[in-house]
Specification:
Keywords: ATP-binding, Nucleotide-binding, Transport. InterPro entries: AAA+_ATPase, ABC_transporter-like_ATP-bd, ABC_transporter-like_CS, P-loop_NTPase. Pfam families: ABC_tran. This protein starts with a strand and ends with a strand. The protein has 256 residues and is an alpha/beta fold. Strand 7, helix 7 and strand 8 form a beta-alpha-beta unit. It has a single domain, classed as P-loop containing nucleotide triphosphate hydrolases (Rossmann fold, 3-Layer(aba) Sandwich), CATH 3.40.50. The chain has a 6-stranded mixed β-sheet, with helices on both faces. Strands 2-1-4-5 form a 4-stranded antiparallel β-sheet. The chain has a two-stranded antiparallel sheet with strand order 11-12. It contains 10 helices and 12 strands. It is globular, with a radius of gyration of 19 Å. The longest helix has 14 residues. Helix 5 runs antiparallel to helix 6 and helix 6 packs parallel to helix 7.
């Protein structure tokens, strides 16, 4: 079951006088996808770290399904929220199945995996087209395959909210399309950072645009990804045209 995300007055920095994000508020309705876009250094990844309970906010609240994540235990939050990060996965000396199975740890309370855990793992492996590869070592996989495995590990957690930081980064076009197709089948609320504005417009119900650690626009893609907003957020001039698919296409020029 997907749950809504509510963020109110969120600020974080390494110390109170050096805040990287400031006074951020937004809602992600249950079962929808929100894409976060902005220039490098805008605060996108920092925002995500507070939402998946890595950075404790200096001020503000993060609620999933009306529950403040900082009033819950780490185990309770890991049953609600899963994260797939862009830092790059280590080359685990585990099989693909073993890596995916790690997603069941929050549900096991220190006990060995039970039949119900194995059923969830088998289902997700099948949904992600990984069953026939389950005995391969994680280190032998391609970049796109590794990203599919990490996404599958997150889904084995059975989260109500999944947070993804640039999941298509460093992937070729085919693997980008595969990852985005998998995201379209996820039965959870999705919060995702993306550099590609066309991808954001294609997959998101709403887009949150950041600049300088603050929100500068929020709403449906057609209302937020405008030339004026793009100029403000990225310091470039944008031209937007409609492709044959009905989706917007963006071209950019430096501002002289």
């Amino acid at each position: 079951m997907a749950l809504d995300l509510t963020v109110r007055g969120l600020s974080w920095g390494p110390r109170p006088d050096r805040r990287i994000i400031e006074d951020i508020s937004f809602d992600v309705p249950a079962g929808t996808t929100t894409a976060i876009v902005g220039a490098n250094g805008a605060g996108k990844s920092t925002l995500l770290r507070s939402i998946y309970r890595h950075n404790r906010p200096l001020s503000g609240q993060v609620q999933v399904g009306g529950r403040d994540i900082w009033r819950l235990s780490a185990r309770e939050v890991s049953r609600l929220v899963a994260a797939v990060l862009q830092e790059g996965a280590p080359d685990f000396s585990f099989t693909l199945r073993e890596v995916v199975a790690m997603g069941r740890i929050p549900h096991r309370n220190g006990q060995p995996r039970a039949g119900a855990d194995e059923a969830v793992i088998d289902r997700v492996l099948a949904e992600f087209g990984l069953t026939d590869m389950a005995d391969r070592t994680f280190g032998s996989l391609s970049g796109g395959e590794k990203q599919r495995v990490l996404l599958a590990r997150a889904m084995v957690q059975e989260p109500q909210l999944i947070v993804l930081d640039e999941p298509t980064n460093h992937l070729d076009i085919r693997h980008q399309l595969e990852i985005m197709a998998l995201l379209g089948r996820i039965r959870a609320t999705v919060l995702i950072t993306l550099h590609d504005l066309e991808l954001a417009a294609a997959v998101a119900d709403q887009v949150l645009v950041m600049r300088g650690g603050r929100v500068c626009a929020l709403g449906p893609p057609g209302e937020t990804l405008t030339p004026a907003t793009i100029r403000t957020a990225f310091d470039v001039a944008a031209t937007i045209t409609e492709a044959a698919t009905g989706r917007p296409r963006f071209s950019f020029d430096l501002i002289s």
